[in-house]
Design brief:
By secondary structure, this protein is mainly beta. It is built from no helices and 5 strands. It has a domain of 37 residues.
Amino acid sequence: MCEHHPACPNADAFDREAARVVAAHPEQGWSRLCNGVIFFEDTGELLPDGSSLPPHRGPAPHGAAA
């Protein structure tokens, strides 16, 4: 359970990425959030129940048609 104030959002909440980082491994490209979510540098996520969410960042600016 989260002891931060205000409390971090649950792993199933829409704003789950707003939870505080409790373990950061930038050299490996991931961080563990207070709510148990593993957040990857490419914006993908691994949820505590084992399900995964694909990266959700937009296309690169240089990849857009002019």
